[in-house]
């Protein structure tokens, strides 16, 4: 197990290094960052002054090393727009995004896994068809449209929930549903497919032939094996949800890291965009690493891979 963890950790660090190079390169993909900061009416002297101020006149490798070494110590530079340290900006906003992401993936798992299990136990039943309908609807509906529908119904028509803000727990109900519904279809379908495959296997028939209670067969023998790919998918979905929360946070006016990304892109605040891409990518890498370790613990055969 330790050897497996060491291999996965080395791979995760290699991916993180690659992501850092890509994130840093984004600053220069849009052209001369000094000219972009100076604006269209700036003179050559103004552009040159900004280039020296921010160190854009130094060799690329030197700039990358300074940026990477600073990032490793928590120094992600200064925001061009907010004139504040980027690390502090992201730390303040990330709390809302993390809370929203955890609530969203919890909502998705608590609804999708039981629904997938029941759909697999009773294929072609009403519940199975309902699960299929919810899966298709969840993939077909854009998040912004679903969010607006919820605001119209529960905030404007019924007045039950606040449409925006972060003051109380009620402010997070609709954003959680919208974000979780995005991840629910894939988890439900994978749970259903895994349960169908496991329930038709020989060891399940053997367990039933020995007289094992149905609940033991379903939840001890079947679900434990069927849930393994769901763990990996949930980790991937969590990474997507953190990065994709930009739409949900914009709709419900939640000033989290996703909303900060939207603000930074709109204002050409490249250091903040760089840092957010790096932070979201690192979260994605960490979640994937943890899911690999958890899967290896659940299924020892994976440790040989």
UniProtKB/TrEMBL annotation:
Residues 94-291 form the ABC transmembrane type-1 domain. It is a multi-pass membrane protein. The chain crosses the membrane at residues 96-118, 130-156, 168-187, 230-255, 275-298. It comes from the Bacteria. Its main location: membrane. GO terms for biological process: transmembrane transport. Keywords: Cell membrane, Membrane, Transmembrane, Transmembrane helix, Transport. Coiled coil: none annotated. Signal peptide: none annotated. It is found in: Cell membrane. The keyword Transferase does not apply. GO terms for cellular component: plasma membrane. Belongs to the binding-protein-dependent transport system permease family. This is ABC transporter permease. It comes from Pukyongiella litopenaei.
């Amino acid at each position: 197990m330790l050897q497996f963890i060491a291999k996965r950790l080395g791979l995760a660090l290699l991916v993180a290094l690659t992501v850092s190079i890509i994130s840093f390169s984004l600053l220069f993909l849009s052209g001369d960052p000094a000219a972009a900061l100076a604006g269209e009416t700036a003179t050559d002297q103004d552009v040159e002054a900004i280039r020296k101020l921010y160190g854009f006149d130094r060799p690329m490798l030197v700039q990358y090393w300074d940026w990477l070494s600073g990032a490793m110590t928590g120094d992600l530079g200064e925001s061009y727009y907010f004139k504040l340290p980027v690390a502090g900006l992201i730390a303040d906003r990330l709390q809302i995004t993390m809370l929203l992401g955890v609530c969203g993936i919890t909502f998705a798992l608590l609804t999708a896994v039981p629904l997938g299990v029941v759909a697999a136990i009773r294929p072609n039943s009403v519940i199975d068809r309902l699960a299929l309908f919810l899966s298709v609807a969840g993939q077909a509906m854009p998040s912004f449209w679903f969010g607006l529908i919820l605001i119209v119904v529960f905030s404007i028509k019924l007045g039950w929930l606040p449409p925006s803000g972060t003051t109380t727990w009620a402010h997070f109900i609709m954003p959680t549903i919208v974000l979780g519904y995005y991840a629910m279809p894939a988890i439900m379908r994978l749970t259903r497919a895994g349960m169908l495959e496991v329930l038709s296997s020989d060891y399940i028939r053997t367990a039933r032939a020995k007289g094992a209670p149905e609940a033991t067969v379903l939840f001890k023998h079947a679900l434990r094996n069927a849930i393994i790919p769901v763990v990996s998918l949930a980790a991937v979905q969590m990474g997507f949800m953190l990065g994709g929360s930009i739409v949900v946070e914009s709709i419900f006016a939640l000033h989290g890291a996703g909303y900060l990304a939207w603000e930074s892109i709109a204002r050409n605040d490249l250091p903040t965009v760089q840092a957010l891409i790096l932070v979201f990518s690192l979260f994605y890498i960490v979640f994937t690493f943890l899911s690999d370790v958890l899967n290896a613990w659940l299924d020892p055969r994976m440790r040989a891979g």
